Amino acid sequence: MLIQFYVKRPVFRQVVFTVSYQILTSNYCNGSKFDYESTRYRKKPPSDKSDRILRSNSQVFDFNSWDHVQWDEEQEQQARKLVENNSVLQIDKNLIQTLNEDVAKNWDAFYNVHQNRFFKDRHWLFTEFTEIIEPLSSTKTDTCSTKNILEIGCGVGNSVFPIVEHCKNDNVFVYGCDFSENAVNILKEHEEYKPDRCHAFVCDVTSEDWNPPFAPESLDIVLLIFVLDAINPNKMQHVINQVYKYLKPGGMVLFRDYGRYDLVQLRFKKGRCLQDNFYARGDGTLVYFFTREEVKTMFESAGFVEKQNLIDRRLQVNRGKQIKMYRVWIQAKYMKPLS
Question: Which of 55, 104, 173, 322 has the lowest CB atom count within 10 Å?
Answer without folding.
Answer: 55
